[in-house]
């Protein structure tokens, strides 16, 4: 077990969520606007406090974890990043090494992790560029590289693909799915139920601050649930390659 | 990375050695060494303490500029953004009108009071809201300015002259004992700030970004504001407000060296010190025996240079 939450609530957004997440796999968090998805991601990443109820990671209440130790286990990806100052791509990725770093200089271990992260996110080609000169898709890959350089066992993401075109959305989800298959846990807030259906092993649907449904995407994502939570009429049919696909038809 | 620090160190050393030798009267080093008057007195009791004060003040203002721009994530932030210097000025102006001969202490009290007010406005529990801090600072700046105008209006002719001189900012020869307690406060704070260089990198991106990478954002933000404010308050109480250094030195260095605080901070300390000492040397010599206020020199030398730097960068970015 990684995260276990009981009656988890926050001053806004969440009002009593109870759930357990596995140690490895790809978990999608879905729900309509204002359901508490981002708040939940923030609490899981130890960024929103004080929360009420309980949220335990690896046997220890999230609020009681020493920050640095927690950051070695759990990485967080914001939706996007606006930099005021001229950091290079490589420097942004190196920031992911902070919870491991000792002293003033970067260690060979840090350098190795950063090079690996740049390579698998296909960002090594512009490692020395000013982060602010990148496009939205490039930025998102660099932020992901920074989180991968952190070498966490769990990644929490708040809508990682919001600002990306289709190709880059798929690329990011493939990377996350590879990461999860390597025995790690990915918890991603998403609006896109079809991406969740394609990539997630489990899905947690939030509605008005509570968990409305959880299970495998095929169990959970039914026309009834979508009508109840999202107020949208939908039907689910196999796509051209046999995998199910959700079609949206109108509001209920 | 280390190369830029070595170059900065060389510039710092060159200015630190040259500045005491430059001035309105020529001094002979051999005569000064042999203890002959007046060369020895001019060097030891007029030039050297003044240059040392310039070096300390320049480095403190530059480091605070880097810190405040980082914490407020605002390129326009500078050491005086939080109102510390206007607080110091109110204290000094009141001191002048009460007939004090040295206004360092009232200036320090003024700076501390304004800082306390601003921080207590912006405190939300144990965190500081940068946005509120910025607005509170700007507001306190205008309130202090109004108070200064009001007092200035009531002041006698000679007091009025003293007030104007203080508000222009300037360096004077100070006692070595003053320099000693100044460094006793500034050196440890500077080392503390330097030792957190890696963490400032993450904080300059964002508080959540830093927190999710293991940096204690709230505590460190508070530390940064307090450290920078103490540096500014101490220096300003002795020199009055000297503009431009805290704004321009960090920017100019970021344009050349990038944003990594492990390079930016040491270079800002060294070159901020060198820049102020060099400007002071100019202010003493250009119209000698009259002195130009050093704030005028920093703005007149630094401004055009900075504009050139901005244009050079724009060309390289768009080409």
Summarize the structure.
The complex is a heterodimer of chains A (252) and B (319). Chain A has 9 helices and 12 strands.
Features:
heterodimer, A: 252 residues, alpha/beta, 6-stranded mixed β-sheet, 4-stranded antiparallel β-sheet, globular, B: 319 residues, mainly alpha, two-stranded antiparallel sheet, 2 strands, 1% strand
What is the topological layout?
The complex is a heterodimer of chains A (252) and B (319).
Chain A: E1 3-9, E2 15-20, E3 25-30, H1 37-44, E4 52-57, E5 60-61, H2 67-73, E6 74-77, H3 89-95, H4 108-120, H5 136-149, E7 154-158, H6 166-181, E8 185-189, H7 193-199, E9 202-207, E10 210-215, H8 217-220, H9 223-230, E11 232-238, E12 244-251
Parallel strand pairs in A: 3-8, 3-9, 6-7, 7-8
Antiparallel strand pairs in A: 1-2, 1-4, 4-5, 9-10, 11-12
Helix pairs in contact in A: 3-5, 4-5
Chain B: H1 2-18, H2 29-33, H3 39-72, H4 84-97, H5 104-122, E1 123-124, E2 127-128, H6 130-154, H7 157-168, H8 176-195, H9 197-203, H10 207-211, H11 217-239, H12 245-257, H13 261-285, H14 294-318
Antiparallel strand pairs in B: 1-2
Question: What does this entry look like structurally?
Answer:
The complex is a heterodimer of chains A (252) and B (319). By secondary structure, chain A is α/β, with parallel strands linked by helices. Chain A is built from 9 helices and 12 strands. Chain A has helices at 37-44, 67-73, 89-95, 108-120, 136-149, 166-181, 193-199, 217-220, 223-230, and strands at residues 3-9, 15-20, 25-30, 52-57, 60-61, 74-77, 154-158, 185-189, 202-207, 210-215, 232-238, 244-251. In chain A, the strands form 3 sheets. In chain A, strands 6-7-8-3-9-10 form a 6-stranded mixed β-sheet, with helices on both faces. The model of chain A has no long low-confidence stretch (mean pLDDT 91). With 319 residues, chain B is mainly alpha-helical. Chain B contains 14 helices and 2 strands, in the order αααααββααααααααα. In chain B, strands 1-2 form a two-stranded antiparallel sheet. In chain B, helix 1 (2-18) packs parallel to helix 13. Chain A binds chain B through residues 42, 45-47, 67-72, 74-76, 78, 81, 83-88, 91-92, 95-96, 98-99, 101, 104, 130, 133, 150, and chain B through 69-70, 73-75, 197-199, 201-202, 204-206, 208-209, 211-216, 254-255, 258-260, 262, 317.
